[in-house]
Amino acid sequence: MAKFMSCALRLVSLLLATFCLSLPARAGELKHAALVLQWQPQAQFAGFYVAKEKGFYAEAGVDMKIIPGGPDVVASKLLASGRAQFATMFLATGIERRADFLQGQGKNGLPVVLLAQLVQRSALMIITRAGSSIKTPKDLDGKRMGVWDNEFGLQPQALFQRLGIHPVIVPQSNTLNLFLRGGVDAASAMWYNEFHSLLASGLDQDELRVFFYRDLDLNFPEDGLYTLESTFKGDPDLCRAVTDASLRGWEYAFAHPDEALDIVQNRMREAHLPTSRAHQRFMLARMQDIMTGAKLGSLDPADFARIIEALWAQKLIHTRPSLDAFFKGQRP
């Protein structure tokens, strides 16, 4: 009997130890971190919101605060100030910040490193009216064009300089109302967001003429997960935990789209943003389109080299960051 009780106690102890190891770290043991996104809550960032809501960050030992972005929120500035330890940015923006840091240009320079490249193909486009005089991108010369006044301007700058044109740049807000009212001749749009919003507003696709940057030899992969080099060197385990939990969030979002949409729409309501489930569903599906095709989070060295050369050719950067110093994630 004593032998049986001893075995039973050992078994219970083993089960309790296994159970405790499977639990996320207690709140007091979690590492605190903040992630700033490029834009307001929407399905473009579903994976991050899912990772937070489903407890993936907590299970990885991180108490994660997600800071929404917007037209007036510059992700790299929050990184530089220490208000956020992680941020999403376009790949070209990350390269520019790193190059300016290496060049000693303090205003825009920032020693960022890329932890995971999420978007593999550009979704950025230029939209005009089908009946306008703008038949090709070169016809934008002298025309009024809406461009986001944030960290999204490198592709337009590269295009304008390459074509030798000078559009009249009008700062663009988070809507295309100015374009709809005829205040600009052309506007910037993301395939998964503003373009679909125009169609949902009642415009027919035949009424629009669109130019994808990816068809103009400016296929710059966009959203990626970034941190400062000092954060990566100082706490690589934290960076690994945030990266793994974020990728897990994206995998879950694509596998459970309805649940992911519920989470995103709740975040949008908390931010007092109008929300359309049909629009968010379209956005999430398009995000899956542009994020898949390579291992999630990986960066193709050819994409990195191509963007470096495009920015260099237009004198938008003046030094070439090395891939090994810039990218700390997986390669396909």
Q: Summary?
A:
By secondary structure, this protein is of the alpha/beta class. Helices cover 44% and strands 17% of the residues.
Stretches where pLDDT is under 50 for at least 5 consecutive residues are 1-9, 11-27
Computed structural class: alpha/beta
Number of helices: 14
What is the tally of beta strands? Answer: 10
List the helices and strands and how they pair.
Blueprint: H1 2-22, E1 31-36, H2 46-53, H3 56-59, E2 62-67, H4 75-81, E3 86-90, H5 91-103, E4 112-117, E5 124-129, E6 144-148, H6 154-163, E7 168-172, H7 177-180, E8 186-190, H8 194-200, E9 208-212, E10 223-228, H9 229-234, H10 236-255, H11 257-270, H12 277-291, H13 301-313, H14 323-326
Parallel strand pairs: 1-2, 1-3, 6-7, 6-8
Antiparallel strand pairs: 3-10, 4-10, 5-8, 5-9
Helix pairs in contact: 2-10, 2-11, 5-13, 10-11, 11-12
Question: Characteristics of this structure?
Answer:
332 residues; alpha/beta; D-Maltodextrin-Binding Protein, domain 2; 5-stranded mixed sheet; 10 strands
Q: What does this protein structure show overall?
A:
- The chain is α/β, with parallel strands linked by helices and 332 residues long.
- It has two domains: 28-121 and 221-326, Periplasmic binding protein-like II (D-Maltodextrin-Binding Protein, domain 2, 3-Layer(aba) Sandwich), CATH 3.40.190.10; 124-215, Periplasmic binding protein-like II (D-Maltodextrin-Binding Protein, domain 2, 3-Layer(aba) Sandwich), CATH 3.40.190.10.
- It is 44% helix and 17% strand.
- It is built from 14 helices and ten strands.
- The chain has helices at 2-22, 46-53, 56-59, 75-81, 91-103, 154-163, 177-180, 194-200, 229-234, 236-255, 257-270, 277-291, 301-313, 323-326; strands at 31-36, 62-67, 86-90, 112-117, 124-129, 144-148, 168-172, 186-190, 208-212, 223-228.
- The strands form two sheets. Strands 2-1-3-10-4 form a five-stranded mixed beta sheet, with helices on both faces. Strands 7-6-8-5-9 form a five-stranded mixed beta sheet, with no helix packed on it.
- Helix 2 (46-53) crosses helix 10 and helix 11 (257-270) packs across helix 12.
- Mean pLDDT is 89; it is low at 1-9 and 11-27.
